[in-house]
Design a protein that fits this description.
Distance between the termini: 34 Å
Number of strands: 2
Largest sheet: 2 strands, antiparallel
Length: 179
Amino acid sequence: MSISMYSISVPPYQQMLSSLDFVLERASELAREQGIDEGELMQRRFAPDMFTLAEQIRHGCMQVNNAIARLAGIEAPDVQMEPDTNIADARARVAAALEFISSVTPEQMDGDPNRSVDVKTRVAALKFGALEHLMHFANPQVYFHMTTAYDLLRAEGLQIGKVDFLGHDFKAKVAAANR
């Protein structure tokens, strides 16, 4: 049995992006209820040398777009390089990433798992096999930024838990199991 790069990227990325959108919706409610300035919230970070919440969201969406585009052999959509200053803009960024990856088919992504994938980073130009890129570069990048965004919001007092991070499909499975 061969592994489907589409199956181990697009559906989990859709899950992560949908969960992030849900958490951001809840963050917007919290900001309204507690009078928190969304611009200030988007600038939160855990350490001075770390990305802000807005940058975590931007980089998470960028990593999703770039990973899928590389594996499908297509151009990633142009994204606004400036971090978002409010939750509505961040949610629009997440929605755009969801729309892009939903437009890609398994046939575009699957194929030779060893085909070359080139990635330019701040530290070096890297060469990967396609599956190696997905499992050892793209997935860790996506999960890092998504988890950090979630953690920043939780640290601000947003009442969310692991179930919210895991998303709708997980909640539905739990509900079905408890019937």
